[in-house]
Amino acid sequence: MKAAAKGIFKLKATGKVFNQHADNHENLVPACAPCNLLKTSYSLEMFRKQVSLQVERGRKSSVNFRTAERFGQIQVTNAPVVFWFERYDTQEEAKP
Ligand SMILES: [Zn+2]
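# zinc ion complex -> structure
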């Protein structure tokens, strides 16, 4: 990683909290490791935006993505980014 080589970014478990404003219950949700790494300290809406940009980034930077898309192995849906807990909340509200 270029940023790590420049000393700009290091992933090191220290137990310290660097973004105190993001260390609260409203910003804590169970997440898989890749999503947790992508989210970093983004707000939920910034994380949603970052997820929504992944297709264009893949198209722009990955020949594998473009090849898979060209051969119909990937079908882009442009579906809105809805997180599991948003679906879960909606399902819970719909229950009688
Ligand atoms: Zn995930």
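# post-check
Residues 84-94 form the longest helix (11 residues).
The pocket of zinc ion is lined by residues 31-32, 34-35 (CB under 6 Å).
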